[in-house]
Design a protein that fits this description.
The protein folds into 2 domains: 100 residues, Helix Hairpins (Orthogonal Bundle), CATH 1.10.287; 313 residues, Bira Bifunctional Protein, Domain 2 (BirA Bifunctional Protein, domain 2, 2-Layer Sandwich), CATH 3.30.930.10. Helices cover 41% and strands 20% of the residues. The chain has 12 helices and 18 strands.
């Protein structure tokens, strides 16, 4: 959510930031709405002041025996009340209009974010590791999983339709092992606090992290029983970012609580409304998937360093699993709605002969905090400021499994379990058709 005062102070800078997103100028339209709002407030204050002054005169006029004048003032006050109520209603309407318009606009990218339209304009930040060379033709993960008899898309389709999967035996355990490994790393070494958050949230929570109103079509909606009352509506979280970030909504933190670092392992649910025809086979793009999420809440001064730290925490997962990857700085046209800067980590998939996204780490400034009314009080100051929020995958569990299956596959279709995961696998070192 943008600050209209900041837009008034630097309208050209605001429009320049939107232009970097490929969007037309919006400041003139927003400031026109704001000017109407300010005019209504000014008129309302003047009317209230005049009404209060007239009300004060009534008692004196009555004491002086000027009944007719007193009655005229009473009529004036009564008329003013009606006008005041009408202006208050207009004020509520124009504030709602301004809020709707501001809520529909994405965050402004930092100046160092590369300009571009889409993923083809993203810039390589760095690479790590060398893609494993296999002396046989590598298979994709779905062929491997189905060959093992432990990954079943047809059975899932009978239950739920397309873009779902049933994992069995050692692959079901592998998914749990990956998540446990990630949580232990992030909590034990990197200082994140594990949270088990709700998976169903209300409208205002989705609004707080900017999934609503713009991206409603990408979400799954849940009602109680046969109820279709919007007041009883829930949303299945598309990422634990939603629940974790909103834990600080409508609160005032002390500066010494920050940065606040949280992690959660949850199922995530996405309608994938805009992905028709993309990744229709396999586990890359699912309606339901598991993810370990990282969220940080910081002061403005801490946010940039916290972004780099979060990226390094996510990277460390891949390093310990022995998976080759690269980090991309997303261009202005490819960033998410709430982000000011985003790093994507892309893991190497031998079966696809390509790098694919496995994590996005974003710094959002105070964009989400304004929507959530999340603040902190700097030490020694009375006034509060908005916190800054950050989020990142640490990592997507399903895509990590995909990378492990394709990277550690053997010619007979079995999968070597990475050393880091063996303590979580109950002694299984190789996943084969017997598992």
């Amino acid at each position: 959510m943008h600050d209209i005062k900041a837009i008034r102070d630097d309208a050209d800078g605001f429009d320049a930031g939107l232009a970097r997103r490929g969007l037309p100028a919006q400041s003139a339209r927003l400031l026109e709405i704001d000017e109407r709002r300010r005019k209504i407030i000014s008129d309302l204050q003047a009317l209230q002041s005049a009404s209060n002054a007239a009300a004060k005169l009534i008692g004196g006029l009555m004491k002086e025996g000027k009944k007719d004048e007193a009655e005229a003032k009473k009529a004036e006050v009564a008329a003013s009340k009606s006008d005041i109520q009408a202006l208050e209603q207009r004020e509520r309407e124009v504030i709602a209009e301004l809020d709707r318009e501001l809520a529909a606009l994405p965050n402004l990218p930092f100046e160092d974010v590369p300009l571009g339209k889409d993923e083809h304009d993203n810039v390589l930040h760095h690479t790590h590791g060398t893609p494993r060379e296999l002396n046989f033709a590598p298979k994709e993960h779905f062929d491997l999983g189905e060959g093992l008899g432990l990954m079943d898309f047809e059975l899932a389709a009978k239950l739920s339709g397309s873009r779902f999967v049933v994992l069995k035996g050692a692959l079901a355990r592998l998914e749990r092992a990956i998540a446990s490994f990630m949580l232990d790393l992030h909590t034990g070494e990197f200082g994140y606090t594990e949270v088990a958050p709700p998976l169903l949230v209300k409208d205002h929570v989705m609004f707080g992290t900017a999934q609503l109103p713009k991206f409603a079509d990408d979400q799954f909606t849940v009602f109680k029983g046969d109820e279709r009352d919007d007041s009883e509506r829930f949303w299945l979280i598309p990422t634990a970012e939603v629940s974790l970030t909103n834990l600080v909504r409508e609160s005032i933190l002390s500066e010494d609580e920050l940065p606040l670092r949280m992690t959660a392992y949850t199922p995530c649910f996405r309608a994938e409304a805009g992905s028709a025809g993309r990744d229709t086979r396999g586990m890359i793009r699912m309606h339901q998937f598991a993810k370990v999420e990282l969220v940080s809440v910081s002061t403005p001064d801490q946010a940039q360093a916290e972004h780099e730290r979060m990226l390094s925490c996510a990277e460390e997962v891949l390093k310990r699993l022995g998976l080759a990857y690269r980090v991309m700085t997303l261009c202005s046209g490819d960033m998410g709605f709430s982000a000011r800067r985003t790093y994507d980590i892309e893991v190497w998939l031998p079966g696809q002969n390509a790098y694919r996204e496995i994590s996005s780490c974003s710094v959002c400034g105070d964009f989400q905090a304004r929507r959530m009314q999340a603040r902190y009080r700097p030490e020694g100051e009375k006034a509060t400021r908005y916190v800054h929020t950050l989020n990142g995958s640490g990592l997507a569990v399903g895509r990590t499994m995909v990378a492990i299956l394709e990277t550690y596959q053997q010619e007979d279709g079995s999968i070597v379990v990475p050393e880091a995961l063996r303590p979580y696998m109950g002694g299984i070192e190789v996943i084969s058709t017997h598992d």
